[in-house]
Specification:
Number of helices: 13
Largest sheet: 3 strands, parallel
Distance between the termini: 30 Å
Order of helices and strands: EHEHEHHHHEHEHHHHHH
Low-confidence stretches: none
Helix content: 40-55%
CATH class of the largest domain: Alpha Beta
Shape: elongated
Number of strands: 5
Strand content: 5-15%
Bound molecules: adenosine-5'-diphosphate, tryptophan
CATH architecture of the largest domain: 3-Layer(aba) Sandwich
Structural class: mainly alpha
């Protein structure tokens, strides 16, 4: 049996890129009978950027509601808020004290983020942002995870995790930690945003399929297209609307829309309406469930609390092994 673990930042409401690039593949992976998945909301990591408790809470709820709405099975798997198993912060400290500062300084995610944030205000490039990889290592090591599905940008964090785990095992001459492996899916698609760049919260070019119909329609209508006149044939392969449609539609639907593009007398407005229709249809059930959880937060939180109790059951013995080895028990 493999234990799969991954963290999802609570930095905003999940968009179509998150759904197709992370949530759906994660749920698919969790369905393999011999796998056990630990998926958590990395709400402590989000404190490096989000300081407002209300905003963070809203994001946590939306992320959790999206996973449940899209069918994540919380009975078979373990789903929890990182902050509610606060043991992870204790482990992060132990790891910090073994991780060479010189190696942490090589973290490119810190460099990228601090370059981007530099000068915004004096706490934007904070020490938490620097220590971020050791909290992430603690997330992984605390649960004896074997496989960690992440994007390419997180690969170095996984290398740090393996490095510090081996260092501690070696130091105490004991197999305290399971050495995890990254699972990086190179084939995963990049979902384009309404402006054709990668869909991202930071570019404000996203489509939020959980929005009410009217604002969702507004987002779909804002997809950038060229100025080919309605009557003229159009090239589906250079069009954002077609690209998004192709990610959601089946082969027959894709072939039909391709023909309409090439046939002329088919405008981008028509294509956008078909895309909207497909989204509403494909996500009808998920949209209903998302609204249900967002309107029944006590039930959502109950599901998370059950996960947190399960997670703590795994975390405590692992942490005790570390405490014992280091002389804190
Ligand atoms: P954002 O860029 O909106 O801030 P995150 O960096 O929080 O998104 O990404 C969360 C997860 O969703 C990651 O696993 C990431 O790889 C995936 N993801 C985000 N945007 C896309 C996209 N446009 N296409 C495919 N996957 C994406
Ligand atoms: N750093 C990850 C990201 O930005 C989120 C994360 C936090 C994570 N802890 C983790 C991912 C542990 C995998 C395992 O996407």
């Amino acid at each position: 049996m493999a234990r799969i673990l991954t963290g999802i930042q609570s930095s905003g409401r999940p968009h179509l890129g998150n759904i197709l690039g992370a949530i759906q593949p994660g749920i698919d992976l969790s369905k393999t009978p011999e796998n056990e998945s630990f998926f958590f909301i990395a709400d402590l990591h989000s404190l490096t950027s989000i300081k407002d408790p209300k905003v963070r809470e809203e994001n946590v709820n939306a992320v959790a509601a999206a996973w449940l709405a899209l069918g994540f099975d919380t009975e078979k798997n373990t789903f929890y808020r990182q902050s509610r198993v606060a043991e992870v912060t204790e482990l992060a400290w132990y790891l910090n004290c073994f991780m060479p500062y010189s190696r942490m300084q090589l973290a490119h995610s810190f460099k990228d983020k601090s370059d981007a944030l530099g000068g915004e205000n004096d706490e934007s490039v904070n020490t938490g942002l620097f220590a971020y990889p050791m909290l992430m290592a603690a997330d992984i090591l605390l649960y004896d995870a074997n496989l960690v599905p992440v994007g390419k940008d997180q690969q170095q964090h996984l290398e740090f995790t393996r490095f510090v785990a081996k260092k501690i095992n070696h130091h105490y001459q004991e197999e305290i930690f399971v050495i995890p492996q990254a699972k990086i899916d190179q084939a995963l698609m990049t979902v384009p945003g309404t402006d054709g760049r990668k869909m991202s919260k930071s570019y404000n070019n996203y489509i939020d399929v959980f929005l009410a119909k009217k604002p969702l329609k507004k987002q779909v209508m804002s997809i950038v297209t060229d100025t080919t006149p309605l009557a003229d044939p159009k090239d589906p392969d250079t069009c954002n609307v077609f690209a998004l449609y192709s990610l959601l539609a089946d082969d027959t639907q894709i072939a039909e829309m391709r023909k309409k593009y090439q046939g002329g007398n088919y405008g981008y407005g028509h294509a956008k309406n078909e895309l909207l229709g497909l989204m509403l249809d494909k996500y009808a059930d998920a949209r209903e469930k998302f609204d249900y959880y967002m309107n029944n937060l006590p039930e959502l939180h109950k599901r998370l609390e059950e996960g947190e109790a399960k997670a703590r059951g795994i975390a405590t013995p692992v942490l005790n092994k570390v405490r014992k080895a280091m002389g804190y028990l």
